[in-house]
Specification:
Its EC number is 2.5.1.54. InterPro entries: Aldolase_TIM (IPR013785), Class-I_DAHP_synthase (IPR052899), DAHP1/KDSA (IPR006218), DAHP_snth_FXD (IPR041071). The protein has eleven helices and 15 strands. With 368 residues, it is of the alpha/beta class. It folds into two domains: 2-70, Alpha-Beta Plaits (2-Layer Sandwich); 90-365, TIM Barrel, CATH 3.20.20. Helix 3 runs parallel beside helix 4 (154-163), helix 6 (207-215) crosses helix 7 (231-243) and helix 10 (304-314) packs parallel to helix 11.
């Protein structure tokens, strides 16, 4: 069961204290209190974990300060929508993230040089984009491939972000100590930008890492679906993060591994955008670069990455994580799938037009 408190109730309110006293009569239940700072209101939820069949929902809802009580049927109790709850929107660095917002994280898969990072940040600023993707820690299939510069590049990377007004960088972490390295580098440089910690597809079920990013509350999380996992398995992995206390999560679809996707690297799963939004309260991101794996163009002159992006955006995606590089042919990581930086204005124009179409279609369908 999830107990939703009225909007004005806090942990210090007598109504909350009275409810906690009432729940003490059920010692077999685990009581988890969650506070969410949403877009339109703050939400105080009390989750009862265990066999709660003996608790009367009507009696709970009659208690002072209780707005409603919800019987939970889905396994992902914290991120789940449960048919009634509003989405888990959050604000970070002055930017709203929810199931109605829309943002683009464009940049390098892995930071290779100072000059390339600066070129990307400069292009983003010139095109009024304040969010980026930049990889410092990069897992590779071969141990001999470029693994990223790690913590060595963080100070100058964050300085550059501040110089060009980049508010947020999405950055993958592979180990809990990477969180500390990022925090230390931000403090060293005066916290010029924010970081969203990315859990990559290879770590989609690295439960100790999921717990580590969930325990810290400083950085939001972008969780990528595991390329070989069923959707429910990935949603449960996101629940691992939330269960440790951090519900500032963006769920990212990035394609699934199957030869049915050939000649693309993976089979695009962006039809699951509305599914995730229906089942959970999380904003949903798409990564069109990884499932395609190439910059190839169709017969209409439009790159496959553009087409796939449109599929996700028209399905209601709230964010795009996409790779650009000043010189893709010289990139040390995933060069074949990186879009040339010179195309950034074209890509943005394309994406914004698709987003406008989605919003218009949404109005038409919901008119009556």
């Amino acid at each position: 069961m999830i107990i939703i408190m009225e909007a004005h109730i806090t942990k210090e309110s007598p109504e909350f204290q009275s409810l906690m006293t009432y729940l003490e009569r059920f010692p077999h239940l685990q009581v988890k209190v969650m506070e969410h700072k949403g877009v339109t209101r703050n939400l105080l939820e009390i989750h009862l974990i265990g066999e709660d069949y003996m608790i009367s929902q009507e009696e709970i809802e009659s208690l002072p300060g209780v707005e409603k009580a919800i019987r939970v049927t889905a396994k992902y109790r914290l991120i789940g929508r449960h048919g009634l709850l509003s989405d888990l929107g959050f604000e970070y660095k002055g930017i709203q993230f929810n199931q109605d917002s829309f943002h683009i994280f464009a940049g390098l898969c892995a930071v290779d040089t100072y000059e390339n990072a600066e070129k990307v940040f400069k292009a983003l600023k010139e095109n009024n984009v304040c969010c980026a993707r930049m990889g410092a820690y990069k897992p590779r299939t071969s141990p001999y491939d470029f693994q990223g510069h790690g913590k060595d590049c963080l100070p100058w990377l964050f300085d550059l972000a501040g110089k060009y007004g980049i508010k947020i960088i999405v950055m993958e972490v592979l180990s809990p100590h990477h969180i500390d390295e990022i925090r230390e580098a931000l403090e060293l440089t005066g916290n010029p930008c924010g970081i969203i910690l990315q859990i990559g597809t290879r770590n989609a079920q690295n439960f100790e890492l999921l717990k580590a990013v969930g325990k810290q509350k400083e950085f939001p999380i972008l969780y990528k679906r595991g390329y070989g996992l069923a959707l429910e398995e990935s949603l449960m992995a996101a629940e691992y993060i939330a269960s440790e206390g951090n519900t500032k999560i963006i769920f990212c679809l990035r394609g699934v591994r199957t030869h049915l996707g050939d000649p693309h690297r993976n089979l695009t799963d962006f039809a699951h955008v509305p599914v995730v939004k229906r089942l959970t309260r999380l904003p949903v991101c798409i990564d069109p670069s990884h499932p395609i794996g190439t910059r190839i163009k169709s017969s209409d002159g439009i790159r496959d990455i553009y087409h796939v992006t449109a599929q996700g955006v028209i399905a209601g995606a709230n964010a795009i994580l996409v790779e650009f590089h000043p010189e893709p042919d010289k990139a040390l990581c995933d060069g074949p799938q990186a879009i040339p930086l010179s195309e950034l204005p074209i890509y943005l124009d394309y994406v914004y037009k698709v987003r406008e179409t989605y919003l218009e279609l949404k109005k038409i369908v919901n008119r009556n």
